[in-house]
Amino acid sequence: MKNKINKINIIFILLLLNMFLFSPSIGLSEGFNYKQKLNPESSASSLKPLDLNFSSFDYQKPLIKLKKKLKILKRNYMLTNKSSKKTTNIKLLLGDVFTIHYVHNSGLGIAYNNIGIKIEYGMGTSPVYVLPRQDVYTISYNFNYDKLSFDFGLGAFAGYGEVHGCANVHTCYGNDHEIEINDGILIQLFSSYEILKYLDITLGINWIMFTIEDKKVSYSDYRLDPREEGIIWSPSLGFSIVF
């Protein structure tokens, strides 16, 4: 019986020696401190605190970046808004050339013009002058730049005009006053500036070219010689209603 007890003791002692000799975390480990493992206060003190340095955080930086982005968006919107500004309008201009001009929002426009210029043809007992008296339609295109816009138009015409005056005592025009007008060209340039939200002031310049055919008075041998007029320019002034 004693021999069995001694054997058990020997086995138990060998097991203890094996645990201390071969376990690195318990037996011979220098980094193991069983008191620290069993002490919760020392475990809590070993935890490093989270360092939140709010003084180094500049909250204004993201706000400044956001402000810059908003400025860029606003600038882009303004540029887009300028280029897409409504250009639909009706112009009324008065002068030697009376004009009613309609412009679509696409930029295309059409104008009715009545040419009422007076051209002096010669001097007799009274001045002889020609009134072309032409109704001319022009096609135009609009270029819009914020408050300032330009319209460029072009049209052609031919027909009959009026001749007035007396070349001499025996030759006067008036009873049979029709004279042939050919090869007529009308070039127009309108400049409009916004003075109110729906109202622009408009200045127009008209360039007119045409040919006057010869004219013979029925009861006289006097003839009005054919004549090709150079470029005649005539200003006009009016307003535009934008809608």
Number of strands: 14
Strand order of the largest sheet: 1-2-3-6-7-9-10-14
Largest sheet composition: 8 strands, antiparallel, barrel
**Integer count of domains:** 2
Q: Round the Cα radius of gyration to an integer and report it.
A: 50 Å
User: What percent of residues adopt helix (DSSP H or I)?
Assistant: 10-25%
CATH topology of the largest domain: Porin
Mean pLDDT: 76
Helix/strand order: HHHHEEEEEEEEEEEEEE
CATH C-level class of the largest domain: Mainly Beta
Q: Which geometry do the CA atoms define?
A: rod-shaped
Low-confidence stretches: 25-32
Q: First CA to last CA: what distance?
A: 122 Å
Q: Which structural class matches the secondary elements? A: alpha+beta
Q: Number of helical segments? A: 4
CATH architecture annotation of the largest domain: Beta Barrel
Q: Tell me the β content.
A: over 45%
In words, what does this structure look like?
- By secondary structure, the protein is an alpha+beta fold.
- It has 2 domains: 1-50, no CATH class; 89-242, Porin.
- 23% of the residues lie in helices and 47% in strands.
- The protein has helices at 2-22, 34-38, 40-45, 60-83; strands spanning 89-95, 97-103, 108-115, 119-123, 127-131, 134-145, 148-166, 172-173, 178-196, 199-212, 215-216, 223-224, 227-228, 232-242.
- The longest helix has 24 residues, at 60-83.
- The radius of gyration is 50 Å and the shape is rod-shaped.
- Mean pLDDT is 76; it is low at 25-32.
